[in-house]
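Task: complex structure prediction.
Instruction: return structure tokens for all chains below.
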Amino acid sequence: METALSPSIAHPTGPLHVMHMASGSPLESQWLRARVGATHRRLRAGQYLYYNGERASDLYMVRAGFLKLCASAEDGSERVTGFRMRSDMLGVGSIGVGRHTCDAVALDTTDVWVLPFAACGRVAELQTALTAALAEEIRRDRAWMMAVGSLPAEQRVAHFLIDLAERHDRLGFNARRFTLCMGRADIASFLALTHETISRALSHLAKVGCIAVSRRDVQLLDIERLRATGTSTRVH
Amino acid sequence: METALSPSIAHPTGPLHVMHMASGSPLESQWLRARVGATHRRLRAGQYLYYNGERASDLYMVRAGFLKLCASAEDGSERVTGFRMRSDMLGVGSIGVGRHTCDAVALDTTDVWVLPFAACGRVAELQTALTAALAEEIRRDRAWMMAVGSLPAEQRVAHFLIDLAERHDRLGFNARRFTLCMGRADIASFLALTHETISRALSHLAKVGCIAVSRRDVQLLDIERLRATGTSTRVH
DNA sequence: CGGCTATTTGATCGATTTCAAGAACAGTGG
DNA sequence: CCACTGTTCTTGAAATCGATCAAATAGCCG
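Output:
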């Protein structure tokens, strides 16, 4: 019944679609994981998987739960740079520098596989999968750049909700109704807005009937209209 | 004498610094290039190296000149997502999807090496270098997200100028004085502003004595102050 | 020189931030 | 179970920054 939603949710040619690749990637294969000596780690909400600047020796794949990534500028201000859920990779930004370039914080009880760096390099299949995961990350950031740079506040929020819905859909979760694992402030930081603006945008989208919101529970009522607001033209 | 500038220009721990890595990367080695069958291509200003959506079979490394990358949203609006100069990689976003995810347009007479995809995959050293290049790209985008998301217009412009200066410095070019290869509109698109705002920001930075601008020639007169404006706190 | 595009500058308008306060909720300890 | 406290969320009103509209100037190329 989730698949019935796909026609309206899915985005066949968009960059986000490719993320699904990870679900079938070698990184999820059982024997490969054994071969690289993958271990397992569980985090409670609020715990850090790794810290910015910390020595990096592993990559991670989320198996359950939800995390946010926070980068900090030189001046000390923090910004959320992304959210990660099941089948997403973590820590790829550390490749080539050996240190994590952001914090990773669990927003819910979270399970990850720990994939040692060195081992990943030895296994050719993993190299390839890793490369693909990196490329995916780039496309994801690119999409974010487009959205944040050119959409007004309410449309950014709509875009954000649709993105979450698509990811839920791909993982087989309910894409029309889900709970946000992060607070308004985190969404605001991610979308480069204030938490008041997020609140107002959600209230307004609810008032016009696109969605229903109660605290952190969200229902997408009129996805088409939501997508329309989240996609409409805004040329600089 | 360029090195004398480094203390004030360089950014020892910042993500941008790592970009330099590319200069010493295997991708620049002569025999490796021969081994992957690298060819050469020259573009005149305005010519496209590749188009968004086009089948991708190569990666590119810039040897001379200057290019911009343009991504287009579903609604048709175009946005500049980056600028590339010597020692930068191009086309990495296509890895894993087989198609280019943006346009690459020369802004000046430009030379690139063409590195066939398939060959890159065979050579282990290249795989590693490639992975590093991808990670670099991610960090670069992350830095952009931080800047654009949290800085007001004038500081974004200052940040942009400093970034260009650092890249020039690393390549051994004059970091205090250079000419912009792109128009105001391209800068505006990249920084998610309007070209009028870019113009005003440059004029103002010039009025307060941080820089001198004439058309596309820029001199950085007071880098410290420029950096201060480009870094100052702006917490959401 | 004319026509073109890029750039600069001014004036106004509007979206979003900021400041401020209240309401809903969660957790705590009595 | 309930008051207490702190946090998250919502809402309002005012202030601000950048966009938009409009026009003038400056280069550039044929």
